[in-house]
Amino acid sequence: MLPRGPRRAPAPSAAQPAGSRPGADRDADPATDHGRHHPHLPHPQVPLVPAAAFVVVWSSGYIAGPLGVEAVEPITLLALRFVVATLLLGAWARWRRGPMRLPRGVLVRLGAVGLMMNGLQFVFMYLAFDVGLGATLGALMHSLSPVLTVVLAGVLLRERVTRVQVVGLVVGVAGVVTILGPDVEEAGGAVGLTLGVLSTLSLCLGTLGQRWTATTPASPRPSDSLEEAGAAEAGATPPGEAIDPVWAAVVQFAVCAVPLVVLGLLLEGTRPVHDPVVAVATVAWLGVVNSIVGLLLLGAVVRRGGAGASASVFFLMPPVTAVMAWLCFGDTLDARELVGLVVAVLGVAVATRSARPHPDGGRGGSPSPGGRGGSPSPGGRGGSPSPGARGGSASPGV
């Protein structure tokens, strides 16, 4: 049985000329016709080394989380993580980017989305770890988020969803159900599963909310998103320009740190640490490696492989986490659970890879699921949504 852990399509470069027919320029140039598949235009290649490092770092968050909640109370653990990430990334941003200049309205939007994306997502998941949800199952639930985000965009925003993406989500959910089997108590019971589902939904809704934070008010151009953190070396963000993704991350870390510190003191008291050595190690790993190093690796993957690059490797997180859980916790999967893991991973892999954009921004026959005619995707940009593709927030598992 599954054991319990130890506790893009680019934005338009200019406005359409008055009276022009949308897409007319694409019709005039067959090389950019989104309605046809062009074999001579290959998909961008996923960069092997940064992608492999990204997968390992991302997956390690699902190991450090359950390990950390054994050493320190979950809300306090999360609060300390965000405090460390805010201070270190804020200092780095000030040094490399210059002073932060974001309008008040942008700060409010970034904060609201950050509370959903980082705050609620991780509070629910860490509480789930605390009641016994396993690392592999947590990673698997979050791995469904790219496909679920696209489906939610179709339901809530009336965007186009392909049949393959819907089938991929159904297959992924079927795999999760197969892993659970008849005895949900092994996965933290109904409480653990409910918290895991709420965490995944918070991640998806926060991803959709990133459209709200795409640019400063004077410009319709979407930002590079947090996935491209480290790509630009410019400093402040003047009005009408894309929001600096690193400063956006600092804001969204900070807006979670303050209420979580207060909540931790109120609910968990002034002595929440049970094992100081493990607590310091896990807070350092989560705050530095997952939240900052993982952020920069994700930026490297997207810069070199395109907007869909992270989505195309996201299905690797659950099996990599399963191997890590076996090495760290001794967790093993029986035959039924192994079949469920394979089924879920295949469902996510097919759905996310079907959404990878062509170099011209199309996907060989259909508009991007995340946007209609150049609008930003749920991931914060045109083209297929990357998992955690959010302008200014950490991604799942970070």
From TrEMBL:
SUPFAM superfamilies: Multidrug resistance efflux transporter EmrE. Coiled coil: none annotated. Residues 52-180, 242-351 form the EamA domain. It is a multi-pass membrane protein. Residues 1-22, 228-237 have a biased composition (Low complexity). It is found in: Membrane. Belongs to the EamA transporter family. This is DMT family transporter. It comes from Nocardioides kribbensis.
